[in-house]
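Allow me, if you will, to draw on your knowledge of protein folds for a short while. The matter concerns a single protein, recorded as an amino acid sequence and a row of backbone structure tokens. Could you please explain, in whatever detail you think fit, how the structure tokens follow from the sequence? I remain grateful for any guidance, and I place the record below:

…
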Amino acid sequence: MGKILGIGLWVCIVTLGAVYGSIYLATAPAGPSEEDAKKAALELIRGEPITIPVIGGGDVTGYFLTRISFMMDKEKVKGQTLPTTELMTDQLFTLLVGNKMVDIGNVSSFDVNDFREKIKTEMNARLGEGMVDQVLIEQLDYVSKEAARKSADGGSRPMETTTVVEGEKLDEQPASSGH
């Protein structure tokens, strides 16, 4: 009789443990995670393709072909009185023209993270702190002045470019001006 009572008690304890474990594992987290909440507060603002001249020795030596987009705070973008995309393009052009961004002879030494951080810092300084959360580089190529000239003169081959950064692929969405 003692064995049967012990087995019955054992079965009850195992059953209660299994039920408790399954309920604990099946319940959803208390709320959205901090990262999900942060992503929900951000909006993708697509940048325009821009061509930035590289100046060396008082002359244009080539061009950077770039398209940079931003993950920005939705609420702060709504408060902008000017079109966000045009503001970003102007700020990027101001920031990057004439800067020695990349040593074309040694593209592998280019620090992408430092470049992104510099753009983010400068954009937030102009647009307002916390406006830009992430900088997304879709394209960053270099074209020499000679290659651009050959292509413009009707060369049969495609224009020779040097890829500085392999761009990030973004979902094709229409550019938002934040209004």
